[in-house]
What does this fold into?
Amino acid sequence: MMKLNLTSELTCPECGHREVETMPEDSCQYFYECKGCKALLKPKPGDCCVFCSYGDRPCPPVQLDQSCC
It folds into this structure.
């Protein structure tokens, strides 16, 4: 069984601020407020969550090749 990585470093596309956050295991996080510039991040078209769009690793369901949200 594959071990999930539950942390991801998010990088804000507006200001470049980076923050390590813990991902939820059973849901997608659609919004995230940058702790640097306070921009409200939303997933890019085709992505299910902010971790898949701006993180250094995808959300847990995508890591497990499951459908997300």
User: Anything to note?
Assistant: The two ends are 21 Å apart (CA to CA). Residues 7-25+34-63 form one domain. The chain has one domain: 7-25+34-63.
